[in-house]
Amino acid sequence: MCTQILLFSVIMLVSSIPSSSFILNKRAFSSRKSVVTSSRGSASLAMYDKIFVAGAARGVGRIVVEKLSSQGKQVVAFVRRAEAKEELEQLPGVTVVVGNALEQKVVENAMDGCDCAITTLGTAPTDVVKHQVDYTGNINVLEAAGILGVTRVVLITSIGCGSSRDAISDEAYEMLKGALLAKEKAEKALVRYYTNAFWTVIRPAGLLTGPATGQAVLTENTKVCGAINRADVADLIVRAIDSKSTFQKVLSAVDPSASRFNFGMEEFQAVSL
Ligand SMILES: NC(=O)c1ccc[n+]([C@@H]2O[C@H](COP(=O)([O-])OP(=O)(O)OC[C@H]3O[C@@H](n4cnc5c(N)ncnc54)[C@H](OP(=O)(O)O)[C@@H]3O)[C@@H](O)[C@H]2O)c1
After folding, report:
1. In terms of Cα–Cα distance, which of 247, 223, 225, 243 is closest to 235?
2. How far is it, in rounded angstroms, from Cα 60 to Cα 148?
3. 203, 161 contact by CB (below 8 A)
4. Is the dihedral of CA 255, 259, 261, 262 positive or negative?
5. How far is the CA of 134 from the centre of ligand 1 (A)?
6. Can you identify the CATH homologous superfamily of domain 2-8+46-217+224-270?
7. Residue boundaries of the structural domains of the chain
8. Fewest CB within a 10 Å sphere: which of 52, 118, 133, 152?
């Protein structure tokens, strides 16, 4: 259990370091066997065409933008650093808006004309005020969506928030508490006030950087934990956009094949996308 506690914390902390400097812990990790079953009856049609992505400069958000662009979607990529603009603008269908997510009107102006909003905003290690964006930045995206009538909203938070609190250890929770509580507040606002919208909350497990395994899943099970590659989270987000089976659901994103890092995954049902 102690190893699991430390591992989750290490993944969460280390994964905020750029990919090139991430060194995977090679130590063998004994995992419990995981069994994934799939729920039936999902319906998926391409319903959304112009998608706003906050947190688009790097990590999960960046991969989401690349995937949507490759699918021929129109994307508004919201970034705060001008350096990210040039690269992202090379992608077909991508318009880049540089701005601070802490400024509501700036977010709202950028989102105008979109029919779906995704936020992967999170505190960077360089941020002086910690965890401000995890609540205020995310709330600004949600509020802009409410004002503009954007009814499809996908909020990325983390396992450890709200009902998934017990999926991580007390030690890991204490270490990550600032970000988790801030994200949880944003989750609560979305669930409470957007009752007529098609929202989805996705809580990833500890993030790793590496090629997609293609084995990751979304689940309503709040006990699962472990690790998942950013590329797999991005793939799940993009598939979830048009999938009715994710509407008005709070889902954990986990990868049972990342077995060295998995715990708490004995048996659970995956959402069919
Ligand atoms: N690390 C983990 O193990 C873990 C586990 C579960 C969930 N999560 C969450 O999953 C999400 C994706 O994580 P990630 O590691 O792929 O991404 P990330 O590196 O945390 O990227 C967050 C993005 O938000 C942007 N951002 C932050 N403050 C902003 C502001 N005021 N205005 C505009 N943009 C702002 C950052 O811009 P800059 O590039 O300019 O900094 C960055 O592009 C995050 O919400 C993260 O907290 C992380």
Report:
1. 243
2. 25
3. yes
4. positive
5. 8
6. NAD(P)-binding Rossmann-like Domain (3.40.50.720)
7. 2-8+46-217+224-270
8. 152
| Phi and psi angles of residue 130, each rounded to the nearest 5 degrees, phi first | -75, 140
pLDDT tens digit sequence for 6-63: 444 545 544 443 332 222 222 222 233 334 444 434 445 678 999 999 999 999 999 9
- Which long-range contacts does 79-83 make (Cβ < 8 Å, 24+ apart)? 81/57
Mutate to test the pocket of ligand 1, among 7, 66, 105, 120 (most ligand atoms within 8 A of CB): 120
> Whose CA is closest to atom 19 on ligand 1?
59
Q: Which two tokens stand for residue 62?
A: 């960046």
| Residue that is written with structure tokens 């290490």 in the block | 10
Contact in structure between 151 and 196 (CB atoms under 8 Å) = yes
